[in-house]
Write a structure and sequence with these properties.
By secondary structure, the chain is an alpha/beta fold. The chain has twelve helices and twelve strands. It has a single domain, classed as Divalent-metal-dependent TIM barrel enzymes (TIM Barrel, Alpha-Beta Barrel), CATH 3.20.20. Helix 10 packs parallel to helix 11 and helix 11 crosses helix 12. Bound molecules: D-mannose and manganese (II) ion.
Length: 354
Amino acid sequence: MKMTFRWYGDTDPIPLSHIRQIPGMTGIVSAVYDVPVGEVWPVATIQALKTKIESHGLALEVIESVPVHEDIKLGKPSRDRLIDNYCATIRNLAQCGIKVICYNFMPVFDWTRTTLDMTLPDGSTTLAFDTETVEKIDVNQGISLPGWDASYRPEELRALLADYAEVDEETLWRNLEYFLKRIIPVAAEAGIRMAIHPDDPPRPIFGLPRIVKDRADLQRLLAIVDHPANGLTLCSGSLGASCKNDIPALVREFAGRKRIHFAHLRNVKINEAGDFHETSHRSADGSLDMAEIVKAYYEAGFDGYARPDHGRMIWGETGKPGYGLYDRALGAVYLNGLWEGVAKAAAPEIDGGK
Ligand code: DNO
Ligand code: MN
């Protein structure tokens, strides 16, 4: 398992020199942020990002994310040009030594939360989702939830939601299939592994379809193009927001089939109403058994990339909610500790089970 850390580029308040000091940190997960969605990422821009990261002794082998244009998800005629561009970006990334591309196929919104700063008993703050709050929102009146307002103007959002009125789950599957059949051969030839991130939370919201939310969806997705280049980002916190998903079992199955290329490791505290909040990574603090999850990866022979995904805001830190330095650093070290424990128990003769 190669531990990595997400970094948002030059505007990220966390310096690479600090990330490098996290024990066991091997690389950065990042993206090109100044190219509009749907356009091609130039080699020179990717190379400059990589050179900067490498100058801090860290690797850049995973991209999160290359966003998928809404017209592709909607199946609009413009998708062919946009998919050509996506393929060009895949080739350019491969040329710069990238190995894994994370992406998602969630209509309109990426992860959805109702608050970005719920206070936990210890005074830290965290991201949370309250089902009732979301159910009360009338999308036609406009949506006001934290983190969203920046992405779309109200009239743009209304137009986009109107376009999606025609897209049910099966249509979205067909559009995903069309996309995968075009991009996976290109990725396979370039030596890139595509890794879809599951929907977060793993259920439809605001009447928008969500199709990457449970075991059956993951199986269906992998079968569309049955090749290692068509793989998964297994996000424990996203899938784990549904009590129906058994995360260690999913890891055993899909890492066993060598189809997990990127592990997002984080914990969530869930209830049966579907509400949840993110917690520290420690098993005792949330609903997921992180030790069992890490053990499942170890036993499946996982040698891909992992990251602590989100963290709480602690020690007075400010910045992008979920993406502070301290709690993610603690998470990374805790997860590496779990790995070392499992590895040593399995093979005590190998130093630290490395
Ligand atoms: C949530 C995060 C996501 C993720 C994107 C990937 O768990 O990991 O924001 O980065 O959905 O496309
Ligand atoms: Mn994730």
